[in-house]
């Protein structure tokens, strides 16, 4: 029972039917204070004994860890948390990669007290030169402790997608990372809504997205991860769309799906502009709809329409 000077102010954290020892792996989650052990057999008056738990003056890492495992990929995000607690006075936490400084702005952080979540440094995006061994060293001026990070650089991170073999970053064969390996998507049921989700996930506009089939940008290699993909168009990621299951397919790489995206348009619905004219006073009429520039058909186009545009 946590923090109870009296039995009426308690929080039950464990219950046993036999004599037992209680281990609390992360005291910071429950907090320091008075813990009370109550023994009650249902017949005689209950007996209890209280123990006051205070934070040590010595530096320590939450959970007693000396090594932390982390996974990332080139282009991904790497967050290194130094979960230090305890100590006296000011704390200085330094992050180092190998024998060199990790980041000149975050290599050393000095605070009066450590936040409950510890000190964190983030690398986003991770570059190839960021590979290596990392460590954080914490000191309070009296003692110093060091935590090692074993960072595994993977080929890719699950659910990431990319476009391959296109002439620009806006088009190409769709590949998705699952089970830490890049693979393709079968073009069965591949349509415009699937393309819209892919383009949106990659940071492009969904307007004007084009779905392409029959390995338009060449055949991929490796696994075909998804088949019979059906997106509603509102999903945040391609992997959120309905499909047969990871690796459940009856396709060949000649059926690899592709998309063509449009760049995010810098316009607001209803805007108009004149394009390819010799001056700013003439040109092809384009109008912005759903944040995407498009043209206007000349059927019934006349001077009155031109007057509105001007």
Q: What does this molecule look like?
A:
With 310 residues, this protein is mostly beta strands. 7% of the residues lie in helices and 36% in strands. The protein has three helices and 21 strands. It has helices at 27-30, 192-201, 303-309; strands at residues 33-39, 47-53, 60-61, 67-73, 78-82, 84-85, 91-97, 100-101, 108-111, 119-123, 134-139, 144-154, 161-164, 171-178, 181-185, 205-212, 224-226, 258-262, 272-275, 284-289, 292-295. The strands form six sheets. Strands 4, 7, 8, 9, 11 and 12 form a six-stranded mixed β-sheet that branches. Strands 13, 14, 15, 16, 17 and 18 form a six-stranded mixed β-sheet that branches. Strand 11 (134-139) and strand 12 (144-154) form a beta hairpin. The longest helix is centred in the middle third of the chain and has 10 residues, at 192-201. The protein is elongated, with a radius of gyration of 30 Å. Residues 1-9 have low confidence and may be disordered.
């Amino acid at each position: 029972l946590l923090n109870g000077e009296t039995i009426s102010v308690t929080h039950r954290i464990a219950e046993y039917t036999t004599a037992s020892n209680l281990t609390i792996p992360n005291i910071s989650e429950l907090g320091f204070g008075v813990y009370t052990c109550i023994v009650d057999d249902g017949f005689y008056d209950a007996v209890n004994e209280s123990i006051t738990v205070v934070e040590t003056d010595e530096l320590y890492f939450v959970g007693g860890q000396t090594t932390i495992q982390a996974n990332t990929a080139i282009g991904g995000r790497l967050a290194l948390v130094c979960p230090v607690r305890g100590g006296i006075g000011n704390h200085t936490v330094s992050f180092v990669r190998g024998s060199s400084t990790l980041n000149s702005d975050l290599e050393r952080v000095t605070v009066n007290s450590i936040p409950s979540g510890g000190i964190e440094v983030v690398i986003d995006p991770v570059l190839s030169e960021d590979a290596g061994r990392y460590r954080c060293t914490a000191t309070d001026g009296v003692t110093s402790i060091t935590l090692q990070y074993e960072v595994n650089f993977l080929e890719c991170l699950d659910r990431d997608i990319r476009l391959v073999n296109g002439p620009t970053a806006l088009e190409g064969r769709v590949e998705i990372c699952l089970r830490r390996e890049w693979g393709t998507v079968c073009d069965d049921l591949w349509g415009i809504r699937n393309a819209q989700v892919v383009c949106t996930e990659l940071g492009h506009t969904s307007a004007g997205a084009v779905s392409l089939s029959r390995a338009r940008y060449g055949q991929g290699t490796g696994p075909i991860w998804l088949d019979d993909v059906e997106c509603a168009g509102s999903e945040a990621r391609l992997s959120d769309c309905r499909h047969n299951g990871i690796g459940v397919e009856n396709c060949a790489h000649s059926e690899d799906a592709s998309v063509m995206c449009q760049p995010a348009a810098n316009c607001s619905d209803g805007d108009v502009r004149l394009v390819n004219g010799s001056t700013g006073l003439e040109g092809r009429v384009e109008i912005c709809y759903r944040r995407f520039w498009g043209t206007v058909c000349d059927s019934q186009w006349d001077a009155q329409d031109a007057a509105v545009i001007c």
